[in-house]
Amino acid sequence: MKCELIQYQLGAYTAGELPPESSLYIKQHLLVCPACQAWHKELQELSGIWQQPETDSNFPDMTADIMNEIRQMPPLYTREVSRLKPRNSRKSMIAHFGLAACLAFCLFQFGVFEHLSSGISQATQKFSYSVNHLFKEGNR
Q1: How many CB atoms lie within 10 A of CB 120?
Q2: Angle at alpha carbon of residue 63, lines to 59 and 64, rounded to 5°
Q3: Mean pLDDT, to the nearest integer, of 87-110?
Q4: InterPro entries attached here (predicted)?
Q5: Of all residues in the chain, what percent carry a pLDDT higher than 70?
Q6: DSSP conformational letter for 58
Q7: Quick count: other Cβ atoms within 10 Å of Cβ 68?
Q8: What is the Cα–Cα distance from 89 to 92, expressed in whole angstroms?
Q9: Are 10 and 18 in contact (CB under 8 A)?
């Protein structure tokens, strides 16, 4: 087994999470490889630090005070019930249809669709001319 693979598995070996045959193989490798021995020693030291954290008496426990202050803070926002569910959806729908009908009537009255159709027909005519021109040049 290569040292990279052994070093990759040393964390699980130190925690005792490997199967017995893998643990035995790593243990045999650790007897002959000084680089992996150093890596294993460092992992054991780190494991000891994580398992027994130092309690420093210079820092008071402020968790309860901070949590009380957080509970006393006002909420960031409040939901408005009217935004979640429309009150008069039928009246709202009728108003929207009425507005759309008025808008369509005004557009017809001022001839917007006539100007729009003439613009579309001009664009179509230009496109048709350019396509015909391309086909005529290709036949030469």
Answers
A1: 10
A2: 125
A3: 86
A4: Anti_sigma_zinc_sf, Znf_put
A5: 84
A6: T
A7: 9
A8: 5
A9: no
